[in-house]
Amino acid sequence: MATSTLAPRFIFGFRADVKDNVHYAEDGSVVYPAGHNIVLYSPDTRTQRLIPGTLESEGITAICVSANKKLMAVAERSDKAMISVYDMQTLKRRKVLVSGDAGSKEYVSLSFSGDGKTLIAQGGAPEWNLVQWVWEKSKVGSVVKTTNQQGVPMFGCAFSPGDSALVSVIGQGIFKLFRNADAGLKPVNPVMGKRDPGLASCQCWVPDPSGSNEQRERLLLGMSDGEVLLLEGTDMKAAFSCDNGLPAVSIAAYSKGFVVGQDGGVVTIFERDEKEFYRRARAFNIEGNACKVLNLAISPNEEHLVASLENNQAFTLLLSNQEIMKQDEMNFEVLGTPNHAGPITGLDVCVRKALIASCCSTDRSVRLWNWAERTCELYRTFADEIFSIAIHPTGLQVLVGFADKLRLMAVLMEDLKVVKELGIKGCRECCFSTGGQYFAAVNGTTISIYNTYTCENVGNLRGHNGKVRSVAWSPDDSKLISAGMDGAVYEWKLKDLKREKEHVLKGCAYASVLATPDCKLLYATGTDKKIKEFEDSTGTGTTISKEIDTGGVNLTQLALLPNARVMFAATEAGGLRTYKYPLTGEFQEAKCHAAPVSRLRVSWDESLLVSGGEDGSVFVWEVRDKDARAAARREQEKLEYAVEVLVTRSELDEKRSRMAELEQQVAELTMQTEYQLRLKDLHLQERVKELTDKFSSDAEADRQKFEALLAEKNEMEMEYEDKLKQAEERSQAQLQALDTQYQAKIMAEVERYQALMQEKELLAERWDEQNSLLVESHERVIAELTEDYEAKLAEEALKIEALQAEKAELEREFEEIKKQLEEDADREIEETKEKYEQKLQTERETSLRLKGENGIMRKKFNNLQKDIEVCNTQIKELYEQKKELYATIASLEKDIASLKREIRERDETIGDKERRIYDLKKKNQELEKFKFVLDYKIKELKKQIEPKDLEISEMKEQIKEMDGELERYHKTNANLDLTISNMHLKQTGLANEVTDQRREKQDAFALMRRFQHDLQEVVGFLQEPKVLKEKVKWLYQKHCGELQTGPAEDGDVEREAARQREYLEKTVDSLKRKLAKDSELHRTDNLRIMQENTALIKEINELRREIKALKGGGLGAGGLGGKPGSANGTGGRPGGRGSPDAVAQELRRELDMQRDLIARLREEMMVKEARIKQLEAMVVPRPISRERLPPMEGFSGAPQHQQHPMHMVSSSYAPPTGVLAGGAGGPPVGLPPPSPQPPGSAGGGVRDSGGAGGPAAAVNSGAVLAGAAIAASMGPVPEDSGEGYDGGAYGGGGEEGEGFEPEGELA
After folding, report:
1. How far is CA 859 from the centre of its chain?
2. Quick one: which of 1227, 1231, 1230, 1271 has its CA closest to 1247?
3. Cβ–Cβ under 8 Å, residues 195 and 229
4. What is the C-alpha radius of gyration for the chain, rounded to an integer number of angstroms?
5. Cα(780)–Cα(165) distance, rounded to whole angstroms?
6. Crossing angle, helix 1266-1274 and helix 649-1019, to 10 degrees?
7. Structure confidence by residue, pLDDT tens digits, 25-48
8. What pTM was estimated for this model as a whole?
9. What's phi and psi for 1232, nearest 5 deg?
10. Which of 293, 325, 802, 1098 is the most exposed place for a label (fewest CB within 10 A)?
11. Inter-residue contact 523 to 513 (CB < 8 Å)
């Protein structure tokens, strides 16, 4: 392996021939192609990240970035068209898509779907197929041919960003729409009215607005006549004109409108319009670039626009400032650097400066690139073609070969000045010597040597019979090596201008030559596709000592590091090879250009390698040494680059005189400014005095108003403190009364519980008897079923034996048939084998005969091919000579016209610039004067206003605090209104709950009547056991479900009864604890609510007084003031509206209204509380078991009309204490509805905690009653067991409940 490696550093270039060649990434960097690479360029930091193309491909044809900026697809030309999908975050390749369905070697356009999962690609000639890829699976979804029968070219495809159902393609005179369906892409006919769809030249789908659920699928279609059509789906909605008649070439849409790129370097901006969709806003020209705007891209934040042009240039426009830009000015900035528009014909690297010099014959420009700062330092165009360039080691001079002359130019700060013109026409090779004192220039077959400082001709080197293609100096400038198209390689000694080494190989046209630092070995490469090593041997002269085959690839340039560790070679395919030195043929290759590499240069410090290609790009490589110590040592010894520039004396004198004029103008402006300042100071002092007086009077009025409000506030606080104490005493008395009432209720419930326990024991004994009867009947049924199934099993066994005998007979028949078929198949195979062996022998003889004939024809073809190549070479030479003669004639004619035109244009330009400079200077002087005056005024005003600002800020803070207090009062009133509305809603809910309970009670009575009627029928058959059994089954099926013949229920009845007893005891204990806790909470809540009500009423009255006081103060004559008023404690009110007696009477009326409102609210709340307590008295049953028990006979523990079926409780289920909670307004979850009770019966129980009141309402409404839960779990109780237990006992409507405020409980 080589001791050095190459790493890409920077690319100066752009490729305009790639479809959709500019995009924005998510981080704001610009994505564009350069050479054989994709570049991610950051405009802020001027840094690049590179994605190299595939080495085997022939070039990049199209790129595409997904809508979310996370994926990028790159199409490349190869034997089979290929697409590479990259991750934009990591820059790693995720998929490579290759398929023969494209019918071409390339894709001309790509587009991602809105979700990024599907990719469509428009194939190239000759098939022009549209391929739909599911790229994550590397699978082709569908293929459709888009061109017409004549096979016209297609050049664009696009996915709609919405549901990705529509696909649009455009071509030369073709516009088509396809709908993406399950069966593939189906064509859709667009409705465009009278407009010709064949005029479509560009397209862009409009993204849906953010936050909109509607998918409009709008398409903007640019036409070659300058119109833009808007299609929604397949229908045309509107048409817009660019008003200049130039064809639309590219379109880009964004949230505020869209941008159209046109021919002639015009960019037109359209903005959204509510009436006509869009309207033309403005148009800008890219000055000096009158060519097509091929592509447009808008940044993710929609602040910048990038436009790529046909001449390999890219410009940016600040979209956010486009409204204030002037349309006749140059508002675009170059993206990165101005690039060459054609093949690079000359390249050189400077020694003392970080400069690279390059030239291009297409745009006729010379550019100096600063590779350290990544900028173009100098750029100049000429009227003649440029063929070669060389830069002096100091960087202060350049040598440029034009079509008519060779010019030595001085590199000034902003221009190139001609120093000397030499009569060498069409110089294609020139270079400075290593020291810079000489330069060599090729004049056809002659090499001329000149002194750099005197421009004298030192000598001419003649000897080549063909054009000289490459020249190289030795390190000590004593020798010159040259190679030409005549196959000759010469080493010249400059001391006597004679050849020292020579070697001629006819038929090989050399393209590049170089020598080792000691000039012992020469290397050259040419059209024979080999690298030759020349060595001078004693006796035989210069001979070829080594030939390295390049693998059938033409090498265009060679470069050798001075220390001879590695050799670089450039290829015709745009690649760069790194050969190990001494040459062994081993190399590493990297493809950097999309066209042949025309120039290759190495920097003097071995750190850089620069290549220039026919694609117009300059590629800067970093040469990294694997020896870290040597690299560090060279870095320390490295000399800093020079920063000096050349300036002519005339320019320096002109700038000095201009500075003197400006200084004089500044002095005059200063005097005028001081006079105007004094005048304005006097005016401002008077104005400040007026403002000061006004602020003082306002502040005094605000202070008096504040003192009056503060006194009124203190009086109201004292009044409401007294009221609060009285309310607390009343609340304490009510709580004590409630406590006594609840204690009496608990004692009554305990007595009721003991009675229910005795009733439960009787029920348990009857259930045991019923269970034993059912077990006996079930065992008898099981025995009968067992006998029936044993008989059926015996019959099935006999059938199985008969089937087995039949199966054995069929197996014997099958074996016999199988044996006969195998014998027939073997016989046929032998016959077929013999037949095809004979045919194979015949084919082998025919193949040998054809191979011999093919060898003879190949030899004839090779001889003819060599003759054709010789003829082609002669034709090319003649054509080149003819072309040079025509070029010379044309250049002379152009020189005369261009010089006249240049003189006239420069005179006009100078006049315009001088006028503009004079106008700008005058404007600048006026602005400076105005700025100085305003700065002085601002300072003086700030000094005078600062004390007043402090006082104003303090008063604003006080007013802000008072406003906040007023806002709190308003919020309190709103909360009270909300509480009242909640009470109304609760009342409605309770009424609905009562209706539901009545309906359930009626249903339960109906069920009991039906069961009693059925039971009376069964009692009539007590003397007939069989009929009685059937009737009992019928009764069970009707009221308890279908009869099941499964195994008997197992379990110990006594254990179940004990478990039930234990559960009920625990329930009673928990309910007692909860009752005590809820009583305490009830007392605390009542106290808190009473305090809140008092505070709210106090705040309402206080707010009303303040409002009236403020209204009265605004109408009165004097400021704010007041004095203590009436005997009810109301504060003073502002005077000016009436007498103190009238004010006191108004306050009394207000208090009476408040008292009436509070009394009315209390009455409503007491009615609602009574209703709530009445509903809480309903019985809630305990949870049922998982299995049902049969009905019990002879149950008579309760009146006959209250009996209902009982259900068995599973011994494994023990409900928790809080199981009584349920849904809204109904029984708890998983429990049967409560037992119906006739009017006047006991109704113990609690409200559902999950009902309309929620958990908080359940806590505030009282404790859960133990006796109610027990009664619910055991069923209805006798009517005489509920004495003293009714809704009135809760204090909702008795004498003890008066004075109690129920609204606090439900708040």
Report:
1. 64
2. 1227
3. yes
4. 53
5. 73
6. 60
7. 999 999 999 999 999 999 989 999
8. 0.55
9. -70, 160
10. 802
11. yes
